[in-house]
Amino acid sequence: MASLTQAIARLFGRSTARNNREQNTTEEIQPMTKVLVLYYSMYGHIETMANTIADGARRVDGVEVTVKRVPETMDPEALASAGGKSDQQAPEASPKELADYDAIIFGTPTRFGNMAGQMRTFLDQTGGLWADGGLVGKVASVFTSTGTGGGEEMTITSTWTTLAHHGMIIVPIGYATPELFDISRVGGGTPYGASTIAGGDGSRQPDERELTIARFQGETVAKVAARLKANG
């Protein structure tokens, strides 16, 4: 009887160890949730917001964050003459690589209540992805900058139209962060997505309140994307 008991104990022990190994293996191979922060920035305001949003997304466990920018379409001399920022560190993205990510957070300055032409040109090259359904079910969100505040909400929501045609899951931020209730000073921030006010001459930089909202947006989108990926 003693030998039988010992044999059962050894068998149970091996079974438990095997189950633990299988569980650990499953945890180890859990794929990372891939988040892309894709932006266009002429003067650096959106670049700053993009990097801050990326920092927020990196707060979420199991998330891999990439920051890229869309190609510049302006002539280099014209860009320099306009005071554009040409020394941005983020690499340029290609339209077809968007399908590699689980979530994409788009950033664009406002141009008369619409996205900048550079972002429009980039998105107009995603017809192949649309035809293949390459972005269907992926998470999307948008942030922006304006000179005086006019057009910030319209820019975000009009960008949503393109993302909806791709079948993306659009994630706003609502009023879930207290900074959006702070009206003690001029600043950006909408329930649709983060924003910053650059000033008519571009001299104003994103302040801590605006950056906090941006960080919150990055974290929120990453959490949603990770939850969707985990649930298959």
UniProtKB/TrEMBL annotation:
FMN binds at residues 41-46, 110-112, 145-150, 165. Its cofactor is FMN. It holds the Pfam family FMN_red. GO terms for cellular component: membrane. Its EC number is 1.6.5.2. It comes from the Bacteria. PANTHER family: FLAVODOXIN-RELATED PROTEIN WRBA-RELATED (PTHR30546), FLAVOPROTEIN-LIKE PROTEIN YCP4-RELATED (PTHR30546:SF23). Belongs to the WrbA family. GO terms for molecular function: flavin adenine dinucleotide binding; FMN binding; NAD binding; NADH dehydrogenase (quinone) (non-electrogenic) activity; NADP binding; NADPH dehydrogenase (quinone) activity. It catalyses: a quinone + NADPH + H(+) = a quinol + NADP(+); a quinone + NADH + H(+) = a quinol + NAD(+). This is NAD(P)H dehydrogenase (quinone). NCBIfam families: flav_wrbA, PRK03767.1. NAD(+) binds at Y43. It comes from Halomonas shengliensis. Substrate binds at W130. Keywords: Flavoprotein, FMN, NAD, NADP, Nucleotide-binding, Oxidoreductase. InterPro entries: Flavodoxin/NO_synth (IPR008254), Flavoprotein-like_sf (IPR029039), Flavoprotein_WrbA-like (IPR010089), FMN_Rdtase-like_dom (IPR005025), NQO (IPR037513). Binds 1 FMN per monomer.
